[in-house]
Amino acid sequence: MAREENRETVGPMARMAATLAKKMRLRKGLTQAREGALMGYTGAAISAMERFVHPVSDEMLVHLERILGDGLGIFEQLRVPVSLEKLPEQFRNYSQIEQKAVALWLYANHVVHGLFQTEPYMRALIAGGYPKPSPERVEELVMGRMARKALFDRTPTCEIELVLDESVLLRPIGSVDIMREQLLYLADCARRSNVNLLVLPLDAALGGEYSGDRGNLEIVESPDHTHASYLEIQGESVLITDRAKVSKLMQRYAKIRAQALDPRKSLGLIERLAGVQR
Q1: What is the pLDDT of residues 54-96, one digit of tens each?
Q2: Can you tell me whether residue 239 is helix, strand or coil?
Q3: CA angle 243, 244, 245 (to 5 degrees)
Q4: CA angle, corner 148, sides to 144 and 150, nearest 5?
Q5: Could you read off the pLDDT of 166-187 as tens digits, one per residue?
Q6: Is residue 54 helix, strand or coil?
Q7: What are the E-state strand segments in 115-235?
Q8: Taking the CB of residue 3, how many other CB atoms lie within 10 A of it?
Q9: Is the torsion defined by CA of 21, 39, 81, 1 positive or negative?
Q10: What radius of gyration, in Å, describes the C-alpha atoms of the chain?
């Protein structure tokens, strides 16, 4: 049951959606019970949404567009920002920066980077985490992570480079089938004109240098061409904007990139691991 204390967890975009929904419902002369019946919900569920007791779900936004939208696409346009609000609190500020980025340079060394995960992969990853989230929270986090993928097709284009440690490709998440689908998706991503996907091989340190030993690294370039770095470990995160610190991290990323396979060899390795025959 929705509880009044949940009001504090409902973000501003979900509140905007709920406020618009209530105004448009009243304008159409619908009761909460009648609107709920048209959408497949109870009147109590509509009431909870309008009172900010329970955040509007993605499914509910789809139905609100159908019942109240009048073809304007208002609720449809709110789906992505509402989903992003449901991401973990420490990630929300960065997610807004990420969605506006003109370029991203990413290094992932334990699982596939969130932007590049398939839905089954991310669902298995999130559901299998600790502490174990509720099924409802799993779906919220999956929807929020899927919403981030709008960045791939955004106009103006965002240039994205990802260096994946080879160990990530060898670590199956969920099942063998889920992992194969993930590998095939990575191969598809690598063929995008705005994506550069590289693999840091397992034997990268044999030459005496290994720059990927300090974990994941994300560097973002904003529309005004300033740079920031986002680091996350064990559920804690930090956004770094100090120019000297960001410069050092950019240099470290350049070292990681230099030790990776080139794009053609990286794609070939991913395809071989996925069982693609050439």
Answers
A1: 888 888 999 999 999 998 899 988 887 887 777 766 676 788 8
A2: strand
A3: 95
A4: 130
A5: 999 999 999 999 999 999 999 9
A6: coil
A7: 159-165, 195-200, 217-221, 227-233
A8: 9
A9: positive
A10: 21
